[in-house]
Amino acid sequence: MNNDADLSCDVLIIGAGLAGGTLARQLRLEQPDLDIVVVEKEVEFPPGLDESSGEEFTNYANRILQIGPYLRKNHYVSSGMRFFFDSPEKDLSIERMSEIGGKRPHPIPTYLIDRPAMERDLCEMNRNSGIRVLLGTSVLNCGPGESPAEAITLDRENGHLVRTTAGVIRCKWLVDAAGEASPLARMLDLVPEESRNPIAASWARFDGCLSLDALGDGAWRHRVPHWGRASSMTYFMYRGYWIWLLPLSDSQYSIGVVFDRRHTEPAVGSGDELLAFLREHRALRDVLGPDATLRSFGTRKRLARLAKQQFSEDRWFLTGNAATVLDPMFATSSWLFTENNKLIGEFIKSDREGRTAELPAFVHHFDIRVRSRYEKLLNTLGHYVSRGSFDAWAAWLALRTRVYYNRIVPDALEDHRILLKFSRTHGTDCPCDETVMGGKLARLLSSADRLTEEFVELIDRDEKYYTNNEGVFLDSAAFDQDETLMPKVYEPRDWTLEGPADERSYEIFCRTLVQRLIELSGGSWSEERFKEVFNPDWDGHQPLEEMYKGVAG
To answer: What is the pTM of this model?
Structure first.
């Protein structure tokens, strides 16, 4: 041990939450000779911003972390996502609300995770595997107004030094998984203020709630006959905001509201205010029942966050909310840290094997990846407006879901093989930045956002925004179990198939929007006229109204 350090290790992870805890376990299983230390300022993990896991995390947990049995025993296996839509008066009972959700479970299971419980359990798993986990240990000088630069000395050659309440720790690789309080991000000024995505949230845990399967009438319950809805990740969708409902037990829910401050800013700054706001919605009043009690409360005035650098040749990294935070819908948090953790593991492995010539290109391509996924998920100005309309959201959700199963899930299931291939065969002067950031997929998603916003303008003009928010059911199997896309999820990625699949998805998306407009106007649909007028090249920026008028005659 060096004289200037009280403790030495190969890898030091700051933060024992879900991102840091899973990374520690991953490194222990993949590179068992690594000496790993995890420091965490908390002794008991507080409830945070809860969310479900996605398919990427499910695969990571089952195959790489080997905790599938633990998750199935201790956390809910999700029966899928459900979206409910309300009247402008917010007075519909849940069985009258239009619904998007599956009648049967999805073939790739996901989980509803009680984060504090899992974070505690990960600490024990990691300790049992020989990892030193130091709870109640803070990095010094990291409070408000203090400078982490006084606590962290970055030194690629001799090892980084981190001054903590447990002493000075020297490490070769340093990972910051400390969330928004990230000392490395603060020290290096890596996170500029994000004005493009002013999303905020408040959330709480409530005891004494009613199960979704205790609500509604018999016909409504029978519509989802296999698992019911009680273990669903549920979203109530409104113009400018949405409310999540995540079950933690048969009577306890995590409930939160996420809103775009460009459109609305409800008074939800305390637990009592949040409860009062939720009770303004008929369906939420029914879920909360007469006896719901507040257990915990949290709020965040700004969610969106992108660290300008998350991987460094100088052997430091960011993961979890220290690196990227986005809209919590669609389990983005678990997807993002799962990907970062895998890439950090690849970097350390190559570094240890002496393949240091690869590292600059690793950093270059990994950086492109994190910027690309952030930009593709940013909310446009009108995005939160579209959420409250069944018609607008159903089409957008179907397109995004098809893209997800066409590209993102296959990429995750094969551990980003193509990204790693490019990283190992390209230099840092390759055209990947331009190709990815301005590529055809990015332009497709941008076009879908543009057309969705135009759709909302058209239905607003005719006062049709809420027309189908009552009494409609859409089985999500139509798009999240797409017969063309699901078989290729389990096969090695084939780029020659992805382009045509995106083109098919775009055509389905445009057809859906035009059909809705025709239906809402009382006109008759003509597939022949749609084929004549539809331009499959989304780079042509064809207006939705042009397609609609062409079909309407």
So the answer is: 0.95
